[in-house]
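Incident log, support desk, overnight shift.

02:14 A customer reports that sequence design results differ from what the structure should imply. Their input is reproduced verbatim below. On-call engineer (initials T.W.) acknowledged and began investigating.
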């Protein structure tokens, strides 16, 4: 069934209050749900009530306390229909269900993870707990009573504030949680078990005392200290930056080891994948620390953008996700380095969102239709959604943007809103017309923006000509011109922006050119000499930029641009082109080479003391093999890409020689204690980037094996292990280090995931053999999402040459694994299957192999809706 935005209708009945009783037993959970319902005005008096349900059965149905006979209701595969309900006024509907959480491998609804009962309801999990109006525009207050054995299940948690606890005799106890804020069912949560707790407090700006708690499996609460710190910083930041305070007496987080996604923003009770809570310098990398900080912030920020104001329907998902990603990006930019954060976000966007937008899984930021909503928690909705919010800020300016956000919070608090309502707040508060801008929500695809420059010496005039175009892609949505905000600067030879007066052309406000037509020009006058043109600063719009800048201009901007993001972009464009050229050379059987000027610019940036180390590490980080494949676009040969990229790293390392040795010596970690702060992490990132070039240049394992053995933290240890495994897979040091790593950390699930992932991504065609063996390893568990992602997901999306093997064996293996996984957890099988989305970019033979594997998979009986949807769209 296809659900369409155009078919949206409010429900026939409204719900106001939900009372739930959960009775937890070792072998089952009994759920009794009583909902106060009422016909909405205009609903016919004989209209039946239709509730959603998924893999449940009604044990009892009652209205106002009276049990209904089976003639009054009918259950089917997708829900329950109840007829003969009161024609007017509120009534109380009670439904009893019996659940088996330990048998729930989909990890949606109520399930059990390492002995902990927990729930995941977004998007459509609540209907696996009880029959309900399980959609985001039905808002009700919840009172939840949980009963369980005190010895086995001492901790009982749900949303809101704890209002009552007590003893039930025979070893059982109960707790009652009251959530005063009306919410949709997807924000419901329950957690129960024998958990450890890390406690803290927070006083809000207006003086509310909030008890903070992070719950973990036994013995692990110490690992939540950094997460707790990040939570308090997030709470303070949202007060300062957006004037948003927390609104309950408690805020709890629970870390769970079996979790489909990163985390979930349930009101007052966030549930997290333990990967985004637990940290220790011995076992977690700098990247893990950043991930925890970001996800903690993201879920906390949802309290206002998602919970207080939720979505009318799932088509509006970007209303909460894009906006909340924008907010967590801004938080990270403020807490760490803004340019480095921006570079990382844009790299992520190009690596994940661009291929999605340019392939068969394309959809607009606000989709028009879906078969399975779980498949729309995508980079387009999240990351491009965040870019759209960022563009609104760029168009309006910081103050008007804040005024628009204030209006949004004020006007829509307590509501289930739409994208139109969101945009209208900025139009009203900012006095802007965003009607053309709103196309960004509805038209899928990455627009191409071409820029041409012409300089008239005698007249002192610079003409910039812009042409935007949008190809119609698989989504089949419109191709009208966008309102594109282009942040820019004209850079003088001394590295300073020149004040140039626009003479004519498109609207310019400050440093932003507002493009609105398919073709437009801007003319600047009063220029004594031709400036360097720094266009699309900070990546002010998610477009593919095509300019005709000379290599000399790019090299100059890589050195001079006062906008750090564009300094990085200038170099990165040169390096990207060099890698595309090197790939073509590799295909002709020639050795990889890089223009000496580009190699020198790369080497110089590593030693530029005016730049902070984290930024320098970004300059040194070459595009991945998948990035290069995207730049090439058609007839891709992954083996040639791999050879070219390796060759370039080696050549740059050799050219740098002593200079990289010295820098590495300067930045490599000393024996002092580990600190996860941004500056220390930046030094480690730079040192490890340098180490990789050195190893590539010399081919010797000794230094890196020594770093592996002596490392005082996981960042340095894992970097060394990665360099060994990926650069020197055959060295004796590599197998020794892999064995040592496993022996050291075999009891830590999150580190074992790293061990699987590093081997899954060894860039050799025969890595597949290793992956097959690992799939039979005693620690491999397909049912654990992190483990499945660490092996199968990492292989499919992170091993270009082995997944895309010419003989198709990588595709067939992944198809087989996905199929096994689909029987357990369709959300994860469908997610991993998206690795096939770029199959049409490859050369003929691989394309044929991928198509055959996908077609064979699509034809198998009994596929989940989730997986069927991805596979069929990929083939369409
Ligand atoms: N709302 C969560 C977040 O982004 C993600 C939940 C996704 N759930 C799902 N079933 N796809 O913070
Ligand atoms: Zn989110």
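02:41 Re-run completed on a clean worker. Output:
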């Amino acid at each position: 069934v296809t659900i369409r935005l155009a078919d949206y209708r409010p429900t026939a009945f409204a719900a106001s209050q939900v009372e739930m009783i959960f009775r937890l037993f070792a072998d089952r959970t009994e759920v009794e749900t009583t909902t106060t319902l009422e016909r909405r005005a205009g609903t016919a008096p004989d209209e039946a009530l239709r509730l959603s349900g998924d893999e449940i059965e009604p044990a009892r149905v009652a209205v106002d306390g009276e049990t209904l006979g089976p003639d009054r209701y009918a259950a089917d595969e997708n829900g329950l229909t109840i007829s003969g309900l009161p024609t007017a006024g509120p009534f109380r509907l009670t439904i009893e269900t019996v659940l088996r959480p330990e048998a729930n491998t989909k990890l949606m609804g109520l399930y059990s993870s390492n002995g902990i009962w927990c729930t995941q309801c977004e998007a459509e999990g609540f209907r696996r707990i009880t029959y309900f109006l399980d959609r985001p525009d039905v808002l009700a207050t919840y009172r939840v009573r949980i009963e369980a054995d005190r010895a086995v299940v001492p901790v009982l948690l749900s949303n809101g504030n704890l209002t009552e606890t007590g003893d039930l005799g025979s070893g059982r106890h109960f707790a009652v949680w009251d959530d005063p804020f009306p919410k949709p069912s997807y924000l419901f949560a329950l957690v129960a078990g024998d958990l450890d707790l890390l406690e803290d407090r927070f006083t809000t700006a207006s003086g509310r005392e909030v008890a903070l708690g992070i719950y973990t499996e036994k013995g692990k609460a110490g690992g939540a200290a950094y997460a707790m710190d990040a939570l308090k910083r997030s709470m303070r930041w949202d007060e300062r930056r957006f004037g948003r305070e927390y609104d309950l007496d408690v805020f709890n987080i629970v870390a769970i080891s079996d979790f489909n996604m990163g985390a979930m923003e349930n009101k007052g009770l966030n549930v997290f994948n333990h990967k985004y809570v637990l940290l220790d310098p011995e076992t977690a990398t700098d990247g893990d620390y950043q991930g925890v900080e970001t996800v903690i912030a993201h879920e906390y920020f949802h309290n206002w953008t998602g919970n207080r104001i939720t979505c009318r329907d799932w088509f509006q998902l970007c209303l909460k996700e894009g906006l909340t990603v924008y907010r967590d990006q801004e938080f990270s930019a403020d807490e760490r380095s803004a340019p480095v954060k921006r570079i990382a976000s844009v790299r992520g966007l190009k690596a994940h969102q661009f291929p999605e937008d340019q392939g068969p899984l394309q959809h607009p930021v606000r989709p028009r239709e879906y078969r399975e909503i779980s498949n729309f928690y995508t980079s387009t909705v999240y990351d491009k959604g965040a870019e759209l919010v960022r563009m609104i800020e760029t168009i309006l300016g910081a103050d008007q943007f804040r005024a628009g956000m204030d209006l949004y919070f004020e006007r829509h608090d307590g509501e289930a809103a739409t994208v139109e309502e969101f945009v209208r707040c900025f139009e009203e508060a900012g006095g802007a017309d965003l009607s053309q801008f709103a196309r960004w929500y509805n038209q899928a695809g990455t627009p191409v923006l071409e820029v041409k420059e012409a300089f008239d010496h005698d007249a002192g005039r610079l003409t910039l000509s812009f042409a935007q175009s949008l190809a119609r892609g698989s989504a089949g949505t419109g191709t009208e011109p966008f309102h594109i905000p282009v942040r820019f600067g004209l850079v003088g030879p001394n590295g300073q922006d020149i004040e140039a007066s626009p003479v004519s052309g498109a609207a310019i406000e400050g440093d932003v050119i507002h493009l609105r037509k398919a073709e437009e020009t801007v003319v600047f006058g009063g220029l004594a000499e031709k400036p360097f043109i720094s266009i699309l600063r900070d990546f002010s719009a998610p477009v593919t930029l095509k300019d005709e800048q000379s290599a000399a201009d790019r090299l100059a901007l890589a050195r001079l641009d006062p906008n750090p993001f564009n300094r990085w972009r200038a170099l990165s464009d040169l390096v990207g082109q060099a890698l595309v050229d090197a790939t073509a050379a590799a295909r002709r059987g020639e050795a990889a080479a890089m223009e000496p000027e580009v190699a020198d610019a790369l080497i110089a940036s590593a030693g530029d003391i005016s730049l902070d180390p984290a930024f320098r590490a970004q300059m040194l980080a070459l595009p991945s093999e998948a990035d290069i494949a995207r730049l090439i676009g058609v007839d891709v040969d992954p083996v040639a890409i791999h050879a070219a990229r390796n060759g370039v790293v080696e050549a740059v390392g050799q050219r740098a020689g002593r200079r990289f040795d010295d820098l590495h010596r300067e930045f490599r970690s000393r024996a002092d204690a580990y600190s996860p702060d941004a500056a220390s992490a930046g030094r480690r990132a730079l040192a490890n980037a340098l180490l990789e070039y050195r190893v590539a240049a010399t081919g010797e394992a000794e230094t890196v094996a020594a770093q592996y053995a002596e490392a005082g933290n996981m960042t340095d240890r894992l970097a060394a292990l990665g360099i060994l495994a990926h650069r020197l897979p055959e060295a004796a040091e590599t197998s020794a280090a892999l064995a040592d790593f496993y022996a050291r950390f075999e009891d830590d699930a999150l580190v074992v995931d790293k061990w699987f992932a590093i081997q899954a991504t060894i860039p050799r065609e025969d890595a597949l053999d290793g992956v097959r063996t690992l799939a039979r390893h005693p620690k491999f568990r397909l049912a654990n999402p992190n483990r499945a992602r660490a092996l199968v997901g990492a292989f499919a999306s992170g091993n270009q040459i082995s997944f895309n093997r010419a003989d198709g064996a990588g595709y067939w293996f992944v198809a087989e694994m996905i199929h096994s996984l689909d029987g357990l957890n369709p959300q994860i099988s469908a997610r991993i299957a998206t690795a096939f989305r770029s199959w049409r970019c490859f050369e003929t033979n691989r394309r044929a192999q991928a198509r055959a594997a996908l077609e064979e998979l699509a034809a198998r009986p009994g596929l989940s809706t989730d997986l069927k949807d991805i596979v069929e769209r990929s083939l369409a």
